Amino acid sequence: MKREDEAPPAGQPDKLTVGGAVLLALIAISGFMTVGLLAEMMKKDGLADPVTAAVAFTVAPLVALFVALVRYAPDKGTALALGLTPAPRVVPIVLATVAGLAAGLPVNELILRMLELFPVKLEAAEAAALADASAFSDAVLLATYILLIPVAHELLYRGFMLPRLVPRLKLWGAIGTVALLHAGELFMSPRYLPSIFTLAVLAGIAAAAGGVWAAIALHVSAQGSPFLARELGLEVAGEGSKGEVVHLAPPLLVGCGVVVLVAVVLMLTVGRRRAVT
Questions:
Q1: Fewer CB atoms inside 10 A, N or C side of the chain?
Q2: What is the number of structural domains in the chain?
Q3: pTM for this prediction
Q4: Is-contact 86 8, C-beta < 8 A?
């Protein structure tokens, strides 16, 4: 039986090149910028609105995914083309979820460190929009940031691109290339690039172990980890109750790193072996 890192899904015409993947990533960026331009036309600093940003980050990969399916998989069902047809594998998904939960806090901490190194001065209108965000559809925003945005990105980058680039670039080359394309969406906000790239690499490892379902599980759990930590009363990167900056305690940060490392090793051994047999 063929290994997942040696060939695309059964019957898949392998026509996606690295250049084609770059073009799809540029289409995703164009989709994001289009939503931003429409928002700016409707009101000043429209993209500073969290709702608009959530829509932009959801629409962008879906636009590119539509083009990808029409261009590279016109004769296949959507589920088959995106690797969704195999039943989710329990072991890789559990390992990916654990890795995502443990990685969410360090990734959030990395964002905070980058913002401290390269601080952003918010305009008054933008600051007001961010302050009012909690009063506008909190539940919808939370669901979008934790669920919709991760799923849309994983379907494009790990569901569609990754298995088609592995035969050309080998496994690690494909994981790194797709992670760079994913992070490239935020080229206008370089403060977020290290965190997004790290998360994308972890999602690629999860995809190698259990396909796109495991990648989705890792991304969703990583996005939800800071919110879960707040509910449990753990320290998370962000703003404290009195406006002070709150950093992760070193023992918690080290503990999260160890859990991520162990989960990754298990995904690359036990999880991946289960996925390809």
A1: N
A2: 1
A3: 0.85
A4: no
